[in-house]
Design goal:
- With about 90 residues, this protein is mainly alpha-helical.
- It has one domain.
- Helix content is about 60%, strand content about 0%.
- It contains four helices and no strands.
- The radius of gyration is 16 Å and the shape is globular.
- The two termini are about 15 Å apart.
């Protein structure tokens, strides 16, 4: 087995994107503001029905509050590092 381990760049990248989205949401009206959540791409069925199918993807990057963000990023870090070591 190779002792050289690559850095988990996909995991780090996803963490960075989540942090940037959260900071942007916070600065533009708050991560718990319903109107702001919808503006940033929250899953909102009436808009999905109208054709905004990208809303099925963007909720992965939206977090409602700092605790939600912190717990999800902690989980992402530990699982992501393991999965990147496993699958490369």
């Amino acid at each position: 087995m190779n002792s050289f381990r690559k850095k988990p760049i996909v995991t780090y990248g996803l963490i960075a994107v989540n942090l940037l989205v959260f900071i942007g949401m916070t600065l533009s009206g708050g991560s718990q503001n319903t109107v702001n959540l919808i503006a940033w791409g929250a899953k909102y069925n009436p808009l999905i029905i109208q054709g905004e199918l990208w809303r099925l993807f963007t909720p992965m990057f939206i977090h409602i509050g700092l605790e939600h963000l912190a717990l999800n990023l902690l989980t992402l870090y530990f699982l992501g590092v393991q999965l990147e070591q496993l699958f490369g």
